[in-house]
Amino acid sequence: xxxxxxxxxxxxxxxxxxxxxxxxxxxxxxxxxxxxxxxxxxxxxxxxxxxxxxxxxxxxxxxxxxxxxxxxxxxxxxxxxxxxxxxxxxxxxxxxxxxxxxxxxxxxxxxxxxxxxxxxxxxxxxxxxxxxxxxxxxxxxxxxxxxxxxxxxxxxxxxxxxxxxxxxxxxxxxxxxxxxxxxxxxxxxxxxxxxxxxxxxxxxxxxxxxxxxxxxxxxxxxxxxxxxxxxxxxxxxxxxxxxxxxxxxxxxxxxxxxxxxxxxxxxxxxxxxxxxxxxxxxxxxxxxxxxxxxxxxxxxxxxxxxxxxxxxxxxxxxxxxxxxxxxxxxx
Length: 331
Known about the structure:
By secondary structure, the chain is mainly α. The protein has helices at residues 3-15, 23-30, 36-65, 72-92, 97-119, 125-143, 146-163, 180-194, 196-202, 214-237, 245-262, 268-290, 296-330. Helix 3 (36-65) packs parallel to helix 5 and helix 5 packs antiparallel against helix 6. The protein starts with a helix and ends with a helix.
C-alpha cells in the first residue's frame, strides 16, 4: 500500500469523518499493483544499494587480504581517495546519491578502522563506532534517506552496545556484580536511540519524503526492545543486583506497545516486536516464580502451557489488529 495515500486517507478521516465518498478510491489507488516504471525505479534503487554495499565491503576485504603488500601511505591514500570519489559522486550525480553515500559510510568505517589499527590510538572499540556514527551523520542528515538512517542506526547501536560494556551486550546473565542504576541508565540510552527516527520525522527540515523512515524506525525500536527484554529478564534472575530492571523494562515495552497501536507512529511490525518483548518479560517472570519451589516437572509443564498461551494469544490479537486496520482503511 502506498504510504502517502494511506496517510492522506487518515488525515481526511480525522478532518471530516462523515464524508466517506473519497475513501474507497484512495484505498483502490493505494493497493493497485505497481506500474512497470515504478518497478523499474525500485529495482534500480535496490541494485544501486547492493552495488554500494559490494563496493564498500569489497574495498575493505581487498585491503585486508593485501595488507602486507601495500605501504601505509598507499593504503591510506586508497581509502581516502575512494571516500572522496563517493562523496563527489553524491554531490554531482543526484540519481546515485543515496547509493554513493551508503558506500561512503562503509568506506568511512574502514578508514577509521585503518587509522585505529595502524596508529594504535588506544581508543576503545565503542569510540570507533561512535566516531563513525558522528562523522557520517553529516551527510545522513542532509540526504533524508531511510536507507542511510537505517545504516546509521545500526552503527550507533553497535557503539552503544560496546560502550555500555557487558551489561549492555552479551553479559546480561553473567554473575558479575551490576547495579540497578546502571541497568536503568542503559535502558534510557537505548530509549534515546529508539526515539531518533521519530525525532527526525518530527522536524520539518529533517523529515523524509514519506514522513517516518519505516525501516530505520523498526530497527531502532527492535534493538531497544531487545535490550530492554534482555536486561529485564536478567533482572528477574539476578534479583539482588538488578531488581529494578524488570519493572522499568516492562514500562518501556508497554510504552512502545501503546505507541505502535494508538499514536500517529502506529506500525504493525513494531507492534509485533513489542508484543514479543512483552512475552519475553512475562515468561522470565513466570520462570522465576514457578521455579522457586522444588516441583520442577510440574513447573516446566505449566511454563510450557503459559508459553503456548502467550504465543497463541499474541498471534491472534495481532491478526485482529491487522484486520481492523485494513477494514478502517477500506471504510
